[in-house]
Amino acid sequence: MTSQDAPPVQYSEKLPEKGSFLYRARIPVYVFLFLILWHLNKTGGPPLLSRFAVPGNSEHFFLKLEVFVSWAIYFSGVFFRSLGTAYIGRQKIWSPALRTDNTQTTGPFRYLRHPVYTGSFLILFSLLPLCSFSGAIFILSTAGSFTFYLAWHEESAFLRKIPKRTSASTINRFWPQNGFWKFLRQEGFKEMKKKKAEILRSEFYNFAFGAGFLLFSLSLSVQKFWYAFLSTLILLSAILLLTRGRSTSSF
Predict the structure, then answer these.
(1) d(Cα 45, Cα 171) in Å, to the nearest integer?
(2) N or C: which terminus of the chain carries fewer CB neighbours within 10 A?
(3) Cβ–Cβ < 8 Å for 134, 44
């Protein structure tokens, strides 16, 4: 039986769980890790992108190619996070509580257990070429491990709600199974279009990385990437805080 043919899993309870301290504090943890990354990038030497530069006339071409690859990985990450947000809502993304309502037979979760965390991993990978060597090692080992922990923690709570724990294990954690691209054409893209406002309010900080990538692709300055990211993040945060009162009813 394939994952898309699996019968719906029934719950006796749908209340949110408290979650561990680290899970509840996941947003401050990420902020703290990126503050350390900022310092390591300023003091840890040139970015990895320049370390792999090809001397000669081809240097500019290969630099542009590396930028394009980073762009592609970044957009793939934003896409997976946006897809997951379209189906579970920004409450799931931002709430300190674990929500174990059944999503296993809904949308992308039929083919991929953690689309949101898959997107987080891809965004982290896209940033590595723009980090110093010490910064890249730090953010991959800390934020990468922490992201895996969050996925495992949610999954553990989810399995505790299931009478038979075997059905979830048939679905890949971070790689889409067969039928995923067909699902996107038939349903996924439509749902993302319908929930675009929800996605924007939830993923604004990841869109700030996009502003950084845009300026970096134009200037090829890693420093300008991080300053564009920070300024855009502050601007979007201020806009969301100012407009939050108008959309309180949708939370």
Answers:
(1) 42
(2) N
(3) yes
In a domain, 223, yes or no: yes
Tens digits of residue pLDDT in 9-64 = 333 334 455 667 888 888 888 888 988 988 888 888 888 877 666 666 666 677 77
Please list, in sequence order, all residues whose beta carbon lies within 8 angstroms of the beta carbon of residue 14, skipping any fewer than 6 positions away.
100, 101, 102
pTM of the model: 0.78
Residue 7 included in any domain: no
Domain count, the chain: 1
Question: What pLDDT, in 10s, does the model give residues 194-236?
Answer: 888 888 777 777 777 778 888 777 777 777 888 888 888 788 7
Q: Does residue 181 lie in a domain region?
A: yes
Assess contact for 219 and 237: CB atoms under 8 A.
no
Residue 2 included in any domain:
no
Query: What φ, ψ does residue 30 adopt, rounded to 5°?
Result: -60, -40
Hunting for tokens 């902020």 — which residue is that?
31
